[in-house]
Amino acid sequence: MARESEFLALDDDALRAVIGPASRHVALIEDAFKVLIEAPGGGVSINGGARDRANARQVVSQLAERVAKGAQVNEADVRATIAVARTGVSGGGRTVDPMALPIGKRGAIVPKTNAQARYLETLANHELTFGVGPAGTGKTFLAAAYGASLLRRGQVDRLVITRPAVEAGEKLGFLPGDLNEKVDPYLAPIWEALNDILGAEDVQRRRDKGEIEAAPIAFMRGRTLSHAFIIVDEAQNTSRLQMKMVLTRLGEGARMVVTGDPSQIDLLNPRDSGLAHALRILRDVKGVGVLEFAAEDVVRHAMVERIVRAYDADSARGRPQDRAGADLEDPAQ
User: What is the pTM of this model?
Assistant: First the structure.
């Protein structure tokens, strides 16, 4: 196939983002599509076969669009955009949704992959959303960003964050401090997201006013949460009874997102996980949306995707002795 060259004009900010620190971003694009990219000034020159040039051009254009929206571009963004160019449009025939969430301290928050775009659409169109999949896919961060945007626009009165207090065998009662001081370490990813979106001072002010509330799932019993956006994080560690209890807290004008990774269950009996059970019985219920992320949707360090794939492959080989807990083994043994 003949190799030809084409020029894509870019402003200075977009050009810097495409090239990246020490030319790292442009090297990733060149390696992915076997093209040569040069920056003679005012843009980039892409040399390669027609299909390879088209894929590289798509990546460069999408990165430039992110910059134009005020978002920063890092290596994870470049890898995610390359993955989208390789796989094409999503199953529904859409490319990455350009819808932007609020501007955070690091720029506009936009979906980085087709899966993230579909996740935001699911959150917008369902009263109850399940976002499940491996670590590093952005499911918790985007849930917090979406909830913060609803709160800031006045579409909900409060943001309620809850999760089971299961972590390496440690119980909340043995941790020092009041309830907030006990719970906060468990919710660090969500607080980081909210601080990035709303600012630490605004988050604290809203917590003091009761507009943002965090509590273990046990504290949800007996409550009705109206006009609220509820985030149930690390839901793979809820029991079936806990999951039913928290799901039935939904009140008038409320929305809920349940996030978790079924491969990281810390319960003594993994079979008791309420997440897998809820997905099985609620998937086709009206008003419920499910978005399942996969290893290719990881937008954290590239190594995370490779780690997730290795564990998935090991699990697929079906080695009971390596699974979490003796209860996963044949009960007849």
Answer: 0.66
